[in-house]
Amino acid sequence: MSDIIQLLPDHVANQIAAGEVVQRPASVVKELLENAIDANASEIKLILKEAGKTLVQVIDNGKGMSVTDARLSFERHATSKIRSAEDLFQLNTKGFRGEALASIAAIAHVELKTKQENDELGTQLVIEGSDVKSQEVTVTPKGTSVAVKNLFFNIPARRNFLKSNTVELRHVSDEFHRVALAHPNIAFSMFHNGSELFSLPTSNYRQRVVNIFGSKTNEKLVPVEEATEVLTVSGFVGKPEFSKKTKSEQFFFVNHRFVKSPYLNHAINSAFEGLLKDSYHPSYFLNLTVDPKTIDINIHPTKTEIKFDDEHTLYAILRSSVKHSLGQFNIAPVLDFQSDTNLDTPYNYKNKEGRTPTIEVDRSFNPFGNNQAHKSTEKGSYGQNFSKTPEANWESLYVGLESKSNSNLIDFKEVNFETEAKTSSIFKPETEAQIKTIYQLRQKYVVSIIKSGMLIIDQNRAHQRILYESLLKQLTSKEATTQQLLFPLVLNFSNSDLQIIKQLQSDLEFAGFQFSKDSNEKISIIGIPVGVPESEVSIVLEQLISDVENDVPDQNFSPSDLLAKSLAKSLAIKTGQSLNEEEQEHIVNRLFACKEPSVSPTNKTTFITLGIDDIEKKFM
Prior knowledge:
The protein has 620 residues and is an alpha+beta fold. The chain has 3 domains: 10-200, CATH 3.30.565.10; 207-328, Ribosomal Protein S5, domain 2, CATH 3.30.230; 441-609, 2-Layer Sandwich (Ribosomal Protein S8, Chain: A, domain 1).
């Protein structure tokens, strides 16, 4: 038998490696930004076109590369970060595998320009699909510029798996936030299709958080500081009243590297126990500093997962640190048996001297006197005057009462009493019209009696279907009814969230929203759809942004369809809500008037039928 195992060609091996490293434009952004940080850059600029599908360019003012290093940087397993296996446990840099640039160059057109500080001229390198097209001398400023064009140009099937520009831009923004938050000492800027989305100057950590997520974030932050031999914790957590339904503001940084850790996330949730509403998540921006020898970051290709040597100790320290900060800043409820709040002095009376109250009494006052002109005045210590005029001839109130009562005597012999109502037996069967045919089970299901058995409806999914078809009809016909607000509703969003709302603004207006004006971080709403409570407008918009983040709007979905689904999810009757009999019947009738009553907008079953035969089988 002939040999069948053979070595893969380099370009095929690079494309396979690219499948691990490069999943979408955000993966390219992450690798290039981390390379710029490792180059000791103080200013980094990110330029995008079509959410990175056409162009991802990162420009930095770092130390640059020599001619030889520029060429070697695109070879597989070429790196300047490690020399031996022991170095893997002493990592203080970002990229160390030496596969990022090689993988990117295998599936895109790459143009590299770099120059070191002491060199007069730099190097320009052009690579297309792992093939070096040219390498020549060029004039370029100090630092490195990497332009990645036409991502997945030689793998069309992979390119078809990319989502819409809105979704891909959101993923890029997330990666940009993670890198920028980990390095507040570096200035970052981000441009998309010629417009500036972020401009983050060098600042402290609190200011960096505020610059990314909006000025309203400043009042939400509670500082966390703790230093031990094992772990140093610094950063901020959000106040419980500002918790969100999404996990978009949860960031762990271990040695300035963003990581995802469900175990440590549970420690934060445990510290917030009893302070959050159901299905709400706390916000946190925490930096953890540990000994590099005690962690292993080489367990996942994207390096977002990490392995700790002693997770239980880190869990306890992190939980107690957050809990201490919440208590220290009076966020969490505390019990103080030594303090009496009744004795606390108000701020307005802090510098005032106490004075003895005085009471003036008119000793000549007689409440039973007949003198109409006499009036008594009592003046209290607060300067209030109280006057009272005694009643004259108060005995005359009873004059004539006896004669009046005698003339109005009632002859009880003429009184007729109503006969008592005859009550039937409590076991008398109800008429057919009085039999209840609809019930609510555990405040989640609506059970209706039908001829063949019973119908069980999920009230939340059914109402989603009803609202979805109604909203979609309004959006397509553009005939939504708007309820004008007496005062404008001003909402604060981060810059990236505002971009999503602006892209969907026309569809939101067709749904019944009316916008007055917006600024860098605020939108002003003067009209909302009929049926949407004013208190839930922010929840509806946050849910809409969350749906865009979670890849709901694919290329096959129109913005109107996305908006109808998101609004239906936010406004539908929730599980646990009690419904009266009329509301239950309304749900049933409206559901079966829909075009697709059997499934919710997310293709989940809305109802099931349980026939008599199915019930009888249970008793066999």
